[in-house]
Amino acid sequence: MAENHHKLIIVGSGPAGLTAALYAGRANLNPIVFEGIQPGGQLTITTDVENFPGFEEGIMGPELMDVMRKQAQRFGATCVFKEITEVDFSQRPFVLKSNKEEYTADAVIISTGASAKLLGLKSESKFMGYGVSACATCDGFFFKDQKIMVVGGGDTALEEALYLTKFGSEVTIVHRREGFRASNIMLDRAKKNPKIKFNLNKVVKEVKGLEEDNKKVMNRVVLEDTRNGSLEEVDVDGLFIAIGHKPNTDLFKDKLEMDDTGYLIVKPGSTYTSIEGVFAAGDVADKTYRQAVTAAGTGCMSAIDAQRWLEENELA
User: Fold this and answer.
1) In this predicted structure, what is the pLDDT of residue 137?
2) Which of 128, 148, 287, 303 could be stapled to 23 by a disulfide with Cβ–Cβ 3.0 to 4.6 Å?
3) 138, 237, 283, 305: the active-site residue
């Protein structure tokens, strides 16, 4: 059992988890990172990353995460391609299981991230990062003077549409019904924006595009009318899915305090969760910004919080 005990276990390997591993490694905590089912997090399905500081010409998402992983490993972090499937925070040291393997830890950093809710289409997955996106802040810049479509009917969809008008020649909001979940103020702003159009009572049925010489790009979308089932094909350069995010916190239900949508609640100005010695970093506790750089920032915070907590409790 001793060989499976660690001062610090980090659950999740996106920008938050790997930044936490870097700082914890430099603090001689010898952290172990459980990379989970999507090593590198959401950035591994992102093509060009142009808004992460330090990369003047931009960098591919998977490459950025590989660089961050190697940097953390350089300072003593261990990365394992395993998923944590069960946790017990009711005892110390904390117990974490990866299927049948059991590990214990004096402190834990949770950086399991959040997943964008998607439409669930095969063609959507096929063109993800090649014209299809779930993050306007990340990818809007690539669609200057182009036709953009946004799917959704809540505040998130309207905020993304308004943001995308800074780049696109026109932005069409597609929503399955005529009523919106969005607040009246956001709806009014969208309606007043001359670049925004509405295509209501429609759902995206298929994403189509070109595939040549190992290159692919989406260029049109098939819409289905929710009233009569009729189909229409629309030319569009970018498709943004804005139907919300789901924090990856099912593992921690009834174990840590979270809000009504599942985001972990942390003490203001820190990464402390409701249990002493358990910290949260990145999108798993951030429903507002959800950027790689903010995730990395809270990853740094969580490692410093964990280090200080371990020292205060004479465990470091």
Assistant:
1) 83
2) 303
3) 138
Contact 134, 304 (CB under 8 A): no
Q: What is the pLDDT of residues 216-242, one digit of tens each?
A: 999 999 999 999 999 999 999 999 999
Contact in structure between 19 and 299 (CB atoms under 8 Å): yes
Separation of alpha carbons 245 and 250, rounded Å: 14
Query: Is the bond preceding 93 in cis, omega lying within 30 degrees of 0?
Result: yes
Instruction: Please tell me the predicted confidence (pLDDT) of residue 215.
Output: 83
| Catalytically annotated residue among 135, 237, 283, 286 | 135
> Higher model confidence: residue 214 or residue 221?
221
- Match 């692919």 to its residue by tokens: 216
135 noted as active-site residue: yes
Dig out the tokens for 192 from the structure.
């007043």
d(CA 199, CA 12): 38
Sign of CA dihedral 227, 233, 237, 239: positive
Distance CA 301, CA 83 (A): 23
Global pTM reads 0.80
Q: How many CA atoms lie within 13 A of 180 on its CB side?
A: 23
- Look up 300 and say whether it is catalytic: no
Alpha-carbon distance 179 to 299, whole Å?
Answer: 39
